[in-house]
Specification:
Urease, subunit C, domain 1, single chain, alpha+beta, 4 strands, 137 residues
């Protein structure tokens, strides 16, 4: 889909590959469940560390008084098979197509408001720009 934008000019092709939608379940399946990392380490890798790297900590990346209360409720008992056809993201392929993963994201809260419940979007486009400090990525 999006790659067709650059069929006549490759510089217009969006970079990278799809993955943000499956990042947490893959880290849980092949990290936590396989005892390669702990659950607290997974939380740091997915939340606290990026918030610090991009200069958004402590409003993002932690659950403390004054932070934004961005929360993911993860169901470790769930499971599913990754399929491009069932992704929310736009690409028409999934690099992990056919992989069985352990667990699934049950609910997502953004600034304390539930925006996703069992794969059903409740609210969309509720993000906001966060100005970062000088010299942060």
């Amino acid at each position: 889909m999006q790659k067709e934008i650059g069929k006549d000019d490759f510089t217009k092709i969006p970079g990278g590959m799809p993955g943000v939608e499956t990042r947490a379940v893959l880290m849980y399946t092949y990290g936590v469940k396989d005892n390669r990392i702990t659950l607290p380490q997974m939380c740091c890798l997915l939340s606290e560390n990026p918030a610090k790297l991009y200069g958004m900590y402590p409003s993002k990346g932690c659950l403390e008084a004054g932070s934004d209360a961005d929360i993911v409720i993860y169901d470790p008992e769930g499971s599913y098979t990754i399929r491009a056809a069932s992704q929310t993201q736009k690409p028409d392929y999934a690099p992990y197509e056919g992989m069985q993963v352990s667990g699934k994201i049950d609910q997502v809260f953004l600034r304390g408001q539930r925006v996703l419940d069992r794969q059903h979007k409740i609210m969309e486009n509720t993000g906001r720009f966060i100005a970062r400090t000088k010299y942060s990525l």
